[in-house]
What does this fold into?
Amino acid sequence: MPSLYGPTHRDLQRRFDTERLADRIEERLVRDFLSPEDRTLIERLDMFFLATVDGEGRPSCSYKGGDPGFVRVVDERTLLFPSWDGNGMFLSLGNVAASAQVGLLFVDFESQRRLRVQGAARLEEAGAAGSEHPGAQLLVRVAVSEVFPNCSRYIHRLKLVERSPFVPRGAAPPPVPAWKRSDWARDVLPASDPAREPGR
It folds into this structure.
């Protein structure tokens, strides 16, 4: 597994005298596989943050939410999650198609734990696997390269109030978001968008 650290990381580690600590963390905590404990954490969470980079090196970070288990640990080196209808910009998935490099940050705000996963992603048609992810437009498969925990001391303790009603569940279509009925959006929606259907 190649080192996480390049020259700029090393410069800052030396400046703040953390090079020894950084090396120990990489030696002891960074892995190239998901443990059974990682699986348990990931599959019980209902959200994560996804960082991607486009073909010109410009970063993007997005929130991804669903019901617990919407991110599936296929095996110790593979994650799979759905991409549902969004705002149509496809910033994250376009970046995946351009560079494949992704970072996923899983945060459990109740137990104040977090886990970082880095790897290379590819887009897949929902197909038969989409039956496990109702409403998925595409699936994202991540080949894991690095996994490591992060210090939890700055995580705010939060409690879930309500899960989003817009997450696709079973055969019933989710409600139409209000913004799709706005004057600025409704005339440019895809032809197949449910917001175009009368009464939706």
Q: What stands out?
A: The CA atoms of residues 114 and 151 lie 8 Å apart. The chain has a mean pLDDT of 93.
